[in-house]
Amino acid sequence: MLVCNTAPACEPVPVYVLVVYVVDLAGGAAMAQAGLMHVVVVFESLFGNTHEVAEAIANGAQTADPTAEVACLRVSEADLELVKTADLLVVGGPTHMHGMTSGLSRKMGLTAEEKKDEEERPEIEPGAEGPGVRDWFADLPRAVKGSQAAAFDTRGDARMAGGAAHGIARRLRRHGYDLVAEPEGFIIEGTEGPLRAGEPDRARAWGANLVQQIAG
Ligand SMILES: Cc1cc2nc3c(=O)[nH]c(=O)nc-3n(C[C@H](O)[C@H](O)[C@H](O)COP(=O)(O)O)c2cc1C
After folding, report:
1. How confident is the model at residue 118 (pLDDT cuts 50, 70, 90)?
2. Domain that holds residue 191
3. For residue 6, pLDDT beyond 60
4. Average pLDDT, the chain
5. Domain count of the fold of the chain
6. Atom 31 in ligand 1: which residue has the minimum CA distance?
7. 2 within some domain
8. pTM for the whole structure
9. Pocket lining: 48 vs ligand 1, CB cutoff 6 Å
10. Under 8 Å CB-to-CB from 89, ≥6 apart: which residues?
């Protein structure tokens, strides 16, 4: 909302301008009406692949709407007040044991890496030992009515690979979000990646498409 008061035009000087900008009227939907779209991408990542996908999605969202405010944040950094103002919330994580990660599965992944020779060890993401998406949802407040969201994961290409995105989507729905897309999986090679060729481009296109959908 923008309220401007100016002194009468006939007075030479001074002209006082009062600008009041109400940042959070009723959450995301109000900001969309004000013309400024807020996109927040929240991710969890052990080896960096989901991080790369999250960045690509954020990048695609920004390209689709250059005026949008787009944030791409680890779960440990994703301030819940900021998340509440999002017109579009996108949440993603790696697939562990066919679904969302847990404290145990992250520990298993890290322990397996520690057993490797130093030169074979992949770089571990900051905060990988901390809470994951599952824990983050425990503190997430209920969405403002009309808030929109989407879920993604990274996973292998095996027949029984499973995926974390459906579990993430279910939690988003339970928190009151409307899903704007089917849960999406992005394929990695092996356990530690890298992402399969073409997946970063597909993630960018997916992010752009989400924004185009909610922009109507
Ligand atoms: C403990 C553990 C369990 C895993 N289980 C699965 C699985 O069930 N299905 C699958 O497709 N990938 C599985 N993976 C591979 C992960 O999906 C892969 O490491 C992840 O997508 C990489 O993302 P990140 O680099 O962001 O951590 C597993 C990895 C770990 C460490």
Report:
1. confident
2. 29-215
3. no
4. 86
5. 1
6. 109
7. no
8. 0.86
9. yes
10. 40, 42, 83, 143, 147, 148, 149, 150, 172, 177
